[in-house]
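Notes continue from the previous slide.

Worked example: a multi-chain complex. Inputs as given:
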Amino acid sequence: MLIRDVSVLQSGQILKDRDILIQDNKIVEIGRDLKVEDKSEIIDGRGKLAAPGLINCHTHAAMTLLRGYADDMELKPWLENKIWPLEAKLNEEDISWGVKLACLEQIHFGITCFNDMYLFPDAVAEATKEMGMRAFISGVVFDMRPEFLTGVEPFVRRWKGDELIIPAVGPHSAYACSEETLLKEKEIADRHNAMIHIHLSETREEVDGFLLSKGRSPVEYLDTLGMLSERLAAVHCVWLSENDCRLLAERKANVVDCTVSNLKLTSGIAPLNTLLKWGVNICLGTDGASSNNNLSLFEEMKVTAIVQKNAYHTPAAFSAEQIWRLATDNAYRTFGLDMGLKAGALADLMLIDLRKPWLCPETNIISHLVYSMTGGVDTTIINGRVLMREGIIPGEEKIMAGAQKRFEDLVQRR
Ligand SMILES: [Zn+2]
């Protein structure tokens, strides 16, 4: 496949009128006037910007089915009276439709890979693969459902080595899992060299509870279990002490910030500047669609930048370039993916139509991507396959109709 005459975003710079040659699932070459065989697929890149795919570093994809079902409530009654009762009725078929809907949405937003934690991980993996997306998938584990832990290692074995699905281990949180459960999860992750995906220090109550019961913060507690490592994606990290930041940095753990979800649930604002000062690798996630309520990393980037500027009382904090790095390079580092627009990298990328009013005039493109982007992803390519072309994903209407039906069925189900 050849993308012809496109502007290429490479390490923050724009290279104009270049061709991108893709073979199988890799970018082979970026240059001028590249030659291909006659029968190769050619994509006209004129007026478009090629940017590397984004990674949604934390989500619960199937929760798209619960989008807008319950909003504007306190966290506890929201979970206990609304979300959990509905989740208790979910079956594999629901999950499959919810995940497909999430894939549609993410493909529209230029996301090529996501990091998921939820129920029925096999259904999540199958639906994701069918949609052609790349994902790190873990089945959620908490002590209220001990059978979930039993399923973890078989799930990891089933999907290990798949081209698009990378199995991971997902203890829900330090407060929902016993020490024994956490250690078992760690053992499985170590055995299979898998990522650990966990919610950590999301609310002040969570941290206060740990300080009271264990005399340690949740971060310090996980460290005593040996769980902080470069294979950890620690999600939220809103309530951190200076010592927590130091530990996360020294153990090379990755922090996934979900600003929109944290703001919507009034959990607080993560101390990103302090984490950066310590050299922690930070990336971005949307969280599930029931607490965001979309899966747009463009929106996440903008809100994160603006909120952090306010938290540190200076518009100079968190430049557009810095925020763009969180959504791209830092995310690639977290998941060990060779991405970016360069020869040898995975062919996971998007083409953005620059002929949109909100992207005009053409000045600082990174600023546009972070602060002005409200649409315009034209083409999304994952693993060398075009999944969306000129804004159209084949089969989209059928998936939306299916998801609608599952939702209606779910709320009436007993
Ligand atoms: Zn979450």
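Summary box: Residues 220 and 336 are 25 Å apart (CA to CA). The chain has 16 helices and 17 strands.
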